[in-house]
Design brief:
Largest sheet: 7 strands, mixed, barrel
Strand content: 35-45%
Shape: globular
CATH architecture: 3-Layer(aba) Sandwich
Bound molecules: zinc ion
Number of helices: 6
Distance between the termini: 34 Å
Number of strands: 9
Radius of gyration: 16 Å
Helix content: 25-40%
CATH superfamily: Cytidine Deaminase, domain 2
Oligomer: single chain
Length: 188
């Protein structure tokens, strides 16, 4: 792939602005359960080419087993009703992928993940692994962000559906994690 082609793909990507408090909630909830998977909802604004994630709320009663099979439809009706009454939108959800034996967790959607994705929503997948070495938080060419926190390496990738069973990667912009100044103004 040429540099120009890569630029074009990046240009077309949906941009997801991850606010600091949402970023912290995600990192803390994922680190808290480490080897188990966790999930939560994403509240914010947006649609089309840009989304802003203001809050990430961990879903406390989620099944915390080694494999994530809890269908999203089972998410608490009560929780969704409350969100409906707030001046903020439910724009998607997030869940973690964890190490299983020797295989490292990947920030990539599984078949089950893809099945449950709807168009018009943003899905974050957070891969958490043991840290091998210290890494500053950075944006990756695939649109994800990654870095280390204490003993862990964390990668956060965003996805959205463009048609049935066809998903694309979003570009995650999180100045508080990556310290990228040029996006700060745009985000305010
Ligand atoms: Zn998954």
């Amino acid at each position: 792939m040429t540099k120009k082609e890569l630029e074009e793909i990046k240009e077309k990507r949906v941009k997801v602005f991850l606010k600091e408090r949402a970023f912290l909630s995600i990192v803390l909830s994922v680190v808290e359960v480490y080897k188990k998977e966790t999930m939560g909802i994403l509240l914010g604004f947006g649609g089309g080419d840009e989304y802003i994630i203001e809050y990430a709320i961990p879903y406390q009663t989620a099944e915390k087993g080694f494999t994530w099979v809890e269908p999203r439809e089972r998410m608490s009706e009560r929780m969704l009703k409350i969100v409906e009454s707030l001046p903020i939108d439910l724009i998607g959800d997030y869940h973690s992928h964890t190490e299983l034996g020797d295989s490292k967790a990947k920030a990539h959607p599984s078949g089950v993940d893809i099945d449950s994705m709807e168009e018009g929503k943003i899905y974050l997948i957070v891969a958490i692994n043991d840290k091998e070495k210290e890494e500053d938080w950075k944006m990756n060419t695939d649109g994800s962000i990654s870095g280390t926190v204490t003993d862990f390496h964390i990668q956060i990738a965003g996805f959205y559906m463009v048609s049935d069973y066809k998903y694309r990667r979003a570009e995650i912009i999180c100045p508080s994690a990556t310290g990228i100044a040029q996006y700060t103004k745009k985000n305010e």
